[in-house]
C-alpha cells in the first residue's frame, strides 16, 4: 500500500511537473470512454482534405476494439487518433499490452461508428495529424483496419500501424484486405517485440529488431522519432488508462490496478 502511494505520488509529480500541461476534456467516444486528457502540447501543422468523396464504410462491418484515444501524442509522430484492436495471435514474451491479447475481450463496434469518432476528433482537435493502428494485432482484423486506414487516408490523415508480423510476412499473405491495409499505411513498425532488445533510440518503438518502414511518400523520417518517449494518464472516476511508454514502476502499478478492477 505504501509503495503504491509512493508510485501514485511519483506519477502525480511527473504529470504536474511537466511544462505546458493542458487539461483537455476529450470528445466523448460514443458509449466508450469519456476521458480526462493530460497532454503536453506540441506545435503541429496539419491540413485536412475534404471528406466529401470518401468511400462509405459498410454499415455491417464490425471491429473488436480494446481502446480508443481520440487525440494522443504518445503513439506516433504528432497528435494522433489511436485505436487498439482487441486480439493478437502472437505471444511475445514481455508484451506490454497483455489485456489486448484475448480475441474475446474488448468491445464490438461498427467501423462506421469509429469513423464518426474520428470525424469528431478532427473537429475537436484540429492539430490531429494521423491515426495509429495498434493492439493487439491490427492485421488480425484486416478488413476493419483497412476500412479505417482508408477513411483516415481520404481525410488527409497519415496512417501509422504497429504489427507483430514483418512486412515480408504481411506481403506474402494471400489476403486482399491485408494488401488494402498496407496500401493505405504510410508508416509501419513491424516484427515481434523482443524484450531482450529494448529500443533505446527510436521513440514509440518497443525493441531494436522492429523496423520502421515508410510505405508512402506522404511521410518521412524526422527528429520526432528521436525524442524521448512520453506517457499519458487518463482518469475517470475509478478508471485509469495509461498509454505511451510508462516506466517500469508505473507499468507494475497499472497492472496491479488492472488486477484489482
Ligand atoms: S505482437 Fe504486439 S500485441 Fe501481440 S504479443 Fe507481440 S507485443 Fe503483444
Description:
The chain has 261 residues and is α/β, with parallel strands linked by helices. The chain has one domain: TIM Barrel, CATH 3.20.20. Helix content is 27%, strand content 25%. The chain is built from 6 helices and 11 strands. The strands form 3 sheets. The protein has a 7-stranded mixed beta sheet. Strands 1-2 form a two-stranded antiparallel ribbon. A hairpin with a 6-residue loop joins strand 3 and strand 4 (79-85). Helix 2 runs parallel beside helix 3 and helix 3 packs parallel to helix 5 (176-183). It is globular and about 45 Å long. It starts with a helix and ends with a helix. The structure holds iron/sulfur cluster (SF4). The site of iron/sulfur cluster has 12 residues, from loops.
Amino acid at each position: 500500500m505504501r509503495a503504491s502511494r509512493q508510485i501514485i505520488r511519483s506519477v502525480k509529480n511527473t504529470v504536474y511537473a511537466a511544462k505546458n500541461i493542458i487539461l483537455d476534456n476529450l470528445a466523448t467516444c460514443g458509449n466508450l470512454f469519456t476521458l480526462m486528457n493530460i497532454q503536453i502540447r506540441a506545435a503541429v501543422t496539419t491540413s485536412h482534405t475534404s471528406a466529401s468523396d470518401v468511400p462509405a464504410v459498410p454499415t455491417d462491418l464490425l471491429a473488436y476494439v480494446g481502446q480508443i484515444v481520440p487525440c494522443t501524442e504518445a503513439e506516433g509522430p504528432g497528435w494522433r487518433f489511436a485505436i487498439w484492436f482487441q486480439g493478437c495471435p502472437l505471444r511475445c514474451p514481455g508484451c506490454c499490452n497483455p489485456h489486448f491479447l484475448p480475441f474475446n475481450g474488448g468491445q464490438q463496434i461498427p467501423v462506421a461508428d469509429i469513423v464518426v469518432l474520428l470525424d469528431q476528433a478532427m473537429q475537436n482537435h484540429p492539430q490531429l495529424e494521423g491515426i495509429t493502428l495498434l493492439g493487439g494485432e491490427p492485421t488480425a482484423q484486416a478488413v476493419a483496419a483497412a476500412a479505417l486506414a482508408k477513411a483516415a487516408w481520404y481525410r488527409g490523415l497519415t496512417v501509422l500501424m504497429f504489427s507483430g508480423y514483418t512486412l515480408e510476412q504481411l506481403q506474402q499473405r494471400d489476403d486482399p484486405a491485408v494488401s488494402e491495409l498496407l496500401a493505405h499505411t504510410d508508416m509501419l513498425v513491424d516484427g515481434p517485440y523482443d524484450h531482450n532488445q529494448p529500443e533505446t533510440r527510436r521513440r514509440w518503438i518497443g525493441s531494436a529488431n522492429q523496423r520502421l518502414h515508410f510505405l508512402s511518400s506522404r511521410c518521412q523520417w524526422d527528429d520526432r522519432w528521436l525524442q524521448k518517449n512520453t506517457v499519458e494518464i487518463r482518469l475517470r472516476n475509478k478508471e485509469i488508462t495509461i498509454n505511451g511508454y510508462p516506466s517500469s514502476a508505473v507499468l507494475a502499478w497499472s497492472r496491479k490496478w488492472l488486477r484489482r478492477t
